[in-house]
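Title: Request for sanity check on Sodium/potassium-transporting ATPase subunit beta-1-interacting protein prediction

Description:
We are preparing a figure and want to confirm that the structure record we downloaded matches what your pipeline produces today. Could someone re-run it with the sequence below and paste the raw structure tokens into this thread? We only need the token string, no images.
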Amino acid sequence: LAALERQIFDFLGFQWAPILGNFLQIIVVILGLFGTIQFRPRYIVVYTVWTALWVTWNVFIICFYLEVGGLSKETDLMTFNISMHRSWWREHGPGCIRRVVRPSSPGILEDYSYVSVTGCIIDFQYLEVIHSAIQILLSV
């Protein structure tokens, strides 16, 4: 359920790398449950290997959002450099007040706007870190 919840919020933020990872996590968990119930050793091995990769991925996400080792949360790495979308929590976190400012310059596209976010109870990067930490705890 935690992976499904995370999948929803990554879809809202158009973060394609986490969407792909969450999708694989959901599929492998289903295979792992099936392998455990039916006692299929190959499925259990696949689940075990995937769990190690899943923990590694979540450690990477924690390092990414905390900007460890030269990583920057301002890059488009999570969207495969396809778009400029960011974490959904950036603008919609608990207590956040989102203000959209339309540019008044002539030459700027009509649908382009600047977003100002203030008053967040907890910053979005810490929410992402909490999500990844929960995934690691559930995996262990």
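Thanks, this matches our download. The chain has a mean pLDDT of 84.
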